[in-house]
Amino acid sequence: MGNFYWEGTDKQGSLHEGALESHSREAAKEHLLQEGYYRVRIWKIQQSHLHRSLNNTEITEFLLQLHRLLKSGVELDDALGFAVQEQKDRVLSFLLCRIRQDLRDGLSMSSALRHYQAFPQIVAKMIEVAESTGRLTEVLGMLLEFYQFQQKMILEQKRLLNYPLVVFSIFIVLSLGAVIFMVPMFKRMYAGLGEDLFWLTRALVKLSDSLRFNPEAWILGTLFSGAIIVCVYRLFGWYWLLNLIPGGKRLQQSIQMLFYSRSMEIMLLTGVHLQEALALAEEMFPKQLRKRIAPVREAVDSGKSLCDAYAMVPVFSPMFVKMVALGESSGHLPSSFARIGSHNQEALKKIMAWASTLIEPLLMILIALGVLGFLLSMYLPLFRMAERF
User: Fold this and answer.
1) Contacts of 196 (CB under 8 A, 6+ apart)
2) What's the rounded Cα separation, in Å, for the pair 178 and 185?
3) Which of 113, 221, 359, 362 has its CA 20 to 30 A from that of 369?
4) Domain count for the chain
5) Of the candidates 325, 215, 334, which has an alpha carbon nearest to the alpha carbon of residue 266?
6) SS3 17
7) Are residues 150 and 209 in the same domain?
């Protein structure tokens, strides 16, 4: 059975949309015509697409639409319908239609979200608590603020990488053009020098010959390197690029701790149980770090206090542990995590400012060294030839 998303109109001309399972596109269309829908458009949804996790932008857009409509007094079923109509992504439209159908079948919103791997567990859990307390609109607003903040941080990180990547790419393209088209002209001039040729010039001449006479090997090598980069991207995301810039590792750690403290704050404020909040907040860290912070949850389960559990894991700073201890003693843990988040945000601003001021001069130094090496390799043999005469 295949999954299909469809749009069509009824006899009154009203637009409808939905999700259905059918053996083929033709069978799905025939079924909809029998149901009284006309001008039907159908898109097949691949099963593999239903198992992918929504990215931060998609989750933010979904929460924004739902929160805005519910705050305006629209019923949840109608709000999901409006959200489907505003979607451009057919996969997300299909999922929202399935969720709407689950609601009509009697399931709660949180149970419907848990049926699909696309939505983060933190969203389903907080909506579950909101449904039991009647605070769905308020909790959706808190989730929206959290994901909008995440989106802002992600955009700032990408902006930090955009400048060096663009400049370095232009430099590589210009360098390849010089090696392919300019070096052969100098090669003919220096043909008589033989072994007296400067070693860097010999290296550039060999590189030029290789690029001109064996382009297939270079194309295959480029494709292979691209495949490796794609694999690394899928395993670690684009965050590994931050390790290549000054302060990148500190920047990542500050951002992860900021997301962790913010997620703990909103979950505890909503009423999520501490053990469940700890488990869900672990998702804010990369997979390789989750095992290192898992002992916190295990220690709390065994009866230790939260500050003692955090003190066992080196990932959390002494300041973090001290703030949590103050929150435990006063009974205001959400406020403690809010203060930790504010402190991390201030530290993050300083790190990003420091990194952005350091990137440009370092990049200019690297480009200057490359240009200097090229000029020396091309013009130093000219001086040697002049000495002979």
Assistant:
1) 384
2) 10
3) 221
4) 3
5) 334
6) strand
7) yes
